[in-house]
Amino acid sequence: MSETLFGGILAFEFMQNAILAALLSSIACGIIGTFVVVKRIGFISGGIAHTAFGGIGLGYYLGVNPLLGVIPFSLAAALGIGILGKKLKVSEDTAIGTFWAAGMSLGVILIGLTPGYAPDLFSYLFGNILTVPSGDLLMIMLLDLLIVGVVLLLNREFLAICFDEEYAEVSGLKSTALYLLLLSLIALTVVVMVRVVGIVMVIALLSIPAAIARNFSRSIPSMMVMATVLSFLFSLAGLALSYMFDLASGATIILVAASAFFLVQGWHFLSAGRQGR
Amino acid sequence: MSGPVIVCDRLAVRLGGTQVLNRLTLSVFQGDFLGIVGPNGGGKTTLLRVILGLQRPTEGSVRVFGSEPGSQPKRTGYVPQRLFFDRDFPLSVGGLVLMGRLSRRRLFRPYGNRDRQAVEEALHTVGLGDLRDRQVGALSGGELQRALIARALAGEPELLLLDEPTASIDPAMKSSVYDLLDSLRGRMTIVMVSHDTGVITKHVTRIACLNCTLDMHEEGSSLKRAPMGDFYDYPVDAILHNRPKSEGSEP
């Protein structure tokens, strides 16, 4: 019976799009999330994502696809936070806080200036994987290709700046430029993720799958693969649960991921306790 | 005749209003093993950072291999004092040492056989051949220090700069690191910053005392009490700077 039920669901175009969106966003967040976790820049990623709300406001104001507004805003946040921190020696959390709040404020004002009602605003904030239009899927796919391509070409350099930035510099790498490039890739990943979990919760899918994967990985590439698989599984499970119980999909995906995170941490705690005895 | 590897001419560095280095003049020649001693805050690490191109001098000039510091990463190897990293960073010892090849790698080219061979040789030299697949976070302090030396050696440098390579390890491990450096002496130019004033005199060819300014001692000379007393706040003994008779062949 369930076979026919799910077979029926899969026949819907919105469900096929949802599964494709889950897969594509998982690839970006597994790869980039790995760098976010090992370099401990989760809150920079949160700042970039929230600044992007200004771009959504701009999209509404200009009457274009809000995702097109997100791209320049998240890139500007990535470069702005990175340059303030690295070049002007502003403390990173100050830069993050400023961009975070300024971006959101700009978004609120632009949406307020836009005549009429802002449809789907909630879905940009908290994601709705069931309503991803095909046009957005194409954009997500292109961004995915760009992210994967850059990481394939520069993975050793990114590993070097994540592990030991000073040594990377001594080895002749342009470590600040590479760091800004990595932050820009995070910005593009935010664009990929907005449709799935929304800008408020991007930070969870960027960090949870990679953080779990780190427990079981012995190298960065294996951590990336595992984080991608975990992210895809969390997205599918969240999608299925949200469909069955009529829950908000983005929030359900995040809660599935967070539950898995706490289970793994609890299991670690218990097994460490047993070894201690 | 080969020219000097490092030339510092009236070098001065001020950091946040503090004079860290002042009128420092120094030449290091090919094959030298220079030990730099001096109190904490005496500018030892700053001097290394200037030579590496990580810190710009406020005044004076520095040339490394006849050009700007930091412009010849292929010829320079660096062993930092400590490495702060997550113990659960997923990286093997082999992967760490492979990073030493970054300076020789062309952008967008994968590592090749030559790189892997250099990693094997470097691991063998420092005695970590068996630990290639061990996670970096699982290494002891002494093993990690050796792995960092291997990373520098994997780049096949002509100049090796070490910042207190024995600061965080126990005495037995210290002597094995010094034995390792003895085996490298002559193969490359070495500059080592250290606290072990007594021990390093047995290994180096020249000693410099650094406390903002520099006092140079050639082989066979003794560190007189007076300059050392000026450098340290507490009484110090004069040390005869020489290698043990069994090793030293030159007069």
Automatic annotation (TrEMBL), chain A:
Membrane topology annotation: Multi-pass membrane protein
InterPro entries named among the record's database cross-references: ABC_BtuC-like, ABC_TroCD
Keywords annotated in UniProt: Membrane, Transmembrane, Transmembrane helix, Transport
Bilayer-spanning residue ranges: 18-38, 43-61, 67-85, 97-117, 137-155, 199-216, 223-245, 251-270
Compartments in which it is found: Cell membrane; Membrane
Any one GO BP annotation for this protein: response to zinc ion
Coiled coil stretches, renumbered: none
Protein name: Metal ABC transporter permease
Automatic annotation (TrEMBL), chain B:
Organism this protein belongs to: Chlorobium phaeovibrioides
Protein known as: ABC transporter ATP-binding protein
Record family assignment: Belongs to the ABC transporter superfamily.
Key word Transport present: yes
Organism superkingdom: Bacteria
SMART domains the record matches: AAA (SM00382)
Matching InterPro entries: AAA+_ATPase (IPR003593), ABC_transporter-like_ATP-bd (IPR003439), ABC_transporter-like_CS (IPR017871), Metal_Ion_Import_ABC (IPR050153), P-loop_NTPase (IPR027417)
A Pfam family assignment: ABC_tran
CDD domains the UniProt entry points to: ABC_Metallic_Cations
One MF term in the entry's GO annotations: ATP binding
Keyword Transferase annotated: no
